[in-house]
Each structure stands twice: as structure tokens, then as C-alpha cells.
Specification:
The chain folds into 3 domains: 34-122, Sandwich (Immunoglobulin-like); 136-215, Immunoglobulins (Immunoglobulin-like, Sandwich); 224-386, no CATH class. 4% of the residues lie in helices and 40% in strands. The protein is built from 1 helix and 28 strands. Strands 16, 21, 22, 23, 25, 26, 27 and 28 form an 8-stranded antiparallel sheet that branches. Strands 3, 4, 6, 7 and 8 form a 5-stranded antiparallel sheet that branches. Strands 18-17-19-20-24 form a 5-stranded antiparallel sheet, with no helix packed on it. The longest helix is centred in the first third of the chain and has 16 residues, at 3-18.
Length: 387
């Protein structure tokens, strides 16, 4: 600046100092953002950064361009951050392109202070993962268990599944799981529910939905489900009851339990409770009971074995390995203090949406003390399998 200009500037400042309406120009340069990063998921790039130590409430501007572009584009202004972290999701991206981002802090005078980092990220091609196998619904008591095959899992970048409920006009997500099973505890008895499943890859790309499957929960002695003692002990025990109004699922440590359900690396196990004994073996059956209208080749267990039961010993633990589609007989002490016989048939050994083990089973209980009859006698005999 020449002297004449400097003198003019002094004159202006002196005049302003003598005026009642003084205008101050804030020339402070804001502190730039720190730790700028970018990540891709489900069709969008999320740009994040940290507040600088000198942050004073200034807004931030996000700039972007494709690597092939000559100039930058202002794409967003962010005015609020949470716990010292700011985020912006850029959904205006194309698969197979490389993008660059930087962020600047904006002072009250409009001066911008850019981040030191310019972040480059490649957006993958939008290729949807495989569609899951057709689901199958096991109707339970006030619940539905949805299960499906593993075909979608063979994809190298498989991540998880999403389970949807469909009402005919719209659908909404019930939850996500990385196992081929989902337990819908919101399904009430007497209503039919329709489900479909999609798969999601590691980049968040989602497949189209599978075909629909339906299930209608109903109150009966079918479709009981129980949790693993080592995961949810309070829902891992079972006690035969006289009717459906009495809850059969009890705590796995309940002294009145007839058995509890456990799993380990070697399999799935029934562990008889105090005063209960389990027949040392299982029976290959096709149904719990083969009543009127059953298939001609239906096989059930109609009479409990009179002997061959094993009970817990104070010095030795007793357990029986469980196999799906097989029936197991127990000799227990009923509410009347007398010996009764009951049978359970395992319909499914699987995992819920949290990858926790569950067992789904049907059961029958003889109310007459000492009576070995479990179901109407039939000529077809079940196949016995030793322990």
C-alpha cells in the first residue's frame, strides 16, 4: 500500500472511531476441521470429520468432485454435530466412479478454512446380492418362526438378511439376522402373517425380496419353543402342564422343571430336572399324534416304554442328545405328586435372529397317573434309536 492509500485508510478509521455507529470487521480465520474421512454403504458416501479444538459454532461446507472433474462442487452445509463428530451422507453418487471430498469451516465473515485432507473413495458397482431361498414358516403359540435355505450365503460378500412383514399393500422390516431363522414374537394367535426375506452384502446392497410365506399362530400343544440354558436361562426350562392356560416354559434352574434345554459344541441336549427321568433313546416319528385325517404313513409314539428311564444322579449328570423329527419320552412327577408320562417331538433345532439356539417342539402329557398311553394306539410302530 502506498502512503497516500495508507493516509486515506487512517482518515477513514479516525472518522469511524468518532462516529456513534462503529462497524468492526472480524477477520478471524476459523479453525479447519480435523480427521476427515469417507466411507461407502448402501448407495451413499458418508463424509465425517471432527470438530477442531478452536471450534466456535461455525458451520461447515462439504465439497466434492469426481476424480475426472476439473472443478469442485459445493454439495452441502452442515450446521450441527453430535459428540464432536460431524456427518454428511452424499447420495448423489454413481457406481464405478471415484470421488474426492474435502470440508471447510466458514467464519462469520465468510472466510473459509479448508481441511488438510482431501479424501478419495471408489464407489462400487450397484450389483444386488442373490435372492434368498423361499422361506418356510413354523406356526407357534403367539409367534411365528421364519426359516429359509443358505443359497444366498454362498456369495463371497454376503453380510446378513432382512426379514419383512407384508400386509398385501405395503411391507416393513421386522429385523435383521445373519442366520437362516427369525422368531417373530409379535405374531398373535388367530391371525395370518406373510413374510419375505432379502439378503444384504458387505457394501449394503440389498437383493429383491424372496417369495412370500405365511404362518398362522394358534394356541395348542404344538409349536412350543425354548431357549438355550447358557444364553437365556430364564426361558430354558420346561414343565408339562395340564392345559394351555398354564405356562410350560420355566426357568432352567426351577426345581419343578421336568427338563431344560442346553447346547454345546457337541450338539443339542435334554437334561432332566429333579424327580424327572428320560427314556434312554429316541423314536423316529413323523408326527406327535396321528389323529383323524392323518396321512396313511403317519407314525407317532402312542405308548410310553414301561422301563429304561434314566434320571439325574447327584454324582453324575444325565443328558440325552436331541435330533430333529424325533420323539422323546419322560417319566415325571406331576402336580398331584404322582408319576406321569409325557412325550415331546422335536420339530426344529435352529437359531433366532440373534444367532441364539432355540428348539421348537410339540408335546403331549398323560393326565392319568401311571398311564403309559400317550396317543391313540396305531398299528404303525415308530423306529427306536438307541442313545
Amino acid at each position: 500500500m502506498n502512503r497516500l492509500g495508507f493516509a486515506a485508510l487512517l482518515t477513514i478509521l479516525f472518522a469511524a472511531a468518532c462516529s456513534d455507529d462503529v462497524v468492526y470487521v472480524d477477520s478471524t480465520v476459523p479453525s479447519p476441521p480435523r480427521g476427515v474421512s469417507a466411507s461407502y454403504y448402501a448407495g451413499g458416501v458418508t463424509v465425517s470429520w471432527e470438530l477442531s479444538s478452536g471450534w466456535d459454532g461455525e458451520p461447515y461446507r462439504v465439497y466434492s468432485k469426481r476424480v475426472s472433474d476439473s472443478g469442485w462442487f459445493f454439495i452441502a452445509e452442515v450446521t450441527s454435530c453430535i459428540d464432536g463428530i460431524c456427518l454428511y451422507e452424499d447420495l448423489n453418487v454413481l457406481g464405478g466412479e471415484r470421488y474426492e471430498y474435502y470440508v471447510s469451516a466458514v467464519g462469520v465473515n465468510g472466510v473459509e478454512s479448508a481441511s488438510n485432507e482431501v479424501i478419495e473413495i471408489t464407489v462400487p458397482e450397484f450389483i444386488p446380492p442373490p435372492v434368498p431361498d423361499a422361506p418356510y414358516v413354523v406356526a407357534l403359540d403367539n409367534a411365528n418362526y421364519v426359516t429359509w435355505g443358505t443359497a444366498a450365503r454362498i456369495d463371497a460378500d454376503f453380510s446378513h438378511y432382512r426379514v419383512y412383514l407384508d400386509d398385501g399393500t405395503s411391507s416393513f422390516i421386522l429385523g435383521e439376522t445373519d442366520s437362516e431363522g427369525f422368531l417373530d414374537l409379535l405374531a398373535g394367535n388367530g391371525n395370518t402373517f406373510f413374510y419375505f426375506v432379502s439378503s444384504v452384502d458387505l457394501d449394503g446392497h440389498e437383493s429383491v425380496g424372496s417369495v412370500l410365506a405365511e404362518g398362522t399362530p394358534r394356541p395348542d400343544f404344538s409349536g412350543e419353543w425354548i431357549s438355550d440354558y447358557f444364553v437365556i436361562p430364564e426361558s430354558s426350562g420346561f414343565r408339562f402342564t395340564q392345559d394351555e392356560s398354564l405356562l410350560p416354559i420355566v426357568d432352567g434352574d426351577d426345581p419343578l422343571r421336568h427338563f431344560r434345554f442346553e447346547t454345546d459344541v457337541n450338539g443339542w441336549w435334554m437334561v432332566p430336572g429333579p424327580g424327572a427321568a428320560v427314556f434312554d433313546g429316541s423314536f423316529q416319528t413323523t408326527a406327535l399324534k396321528c389323529g383323524p385325517g392323518a396321512d396313511a404313513d403317519c407314525i407317532d409314539l402312542s405308548v410310553a416304554p414301561p422301563s429304561g428311564y434314566v434320571a439325574q444322579d447327584p454324582l453324575e449328570s444325565v443328558s440325552l442328545q436331541l435330533v430333529a423329527q424325533e420323539s422323546y419320552v419322560l417319566r415325571v412327577i406331576g402336580d398331584d405328586g404322582l408319576v406321569h408320562y409325557g412325550v415331546i417331538r422335536v420339530t426344529l433345532l435352529g437359531f433366532d435372529q440373534n444367532d441364539d439356539p432355540i428348539m421348537i417342539f410339540d408335546w403331549a402329557y398323560q393326565l392319568q397317573p401311571g398311564n403309559l398311553n400317550l396317543a391313540p394306539a396305531r398299528q404303525t410302530k415308530p423306529t427306536f434309536r438307541s442313545r
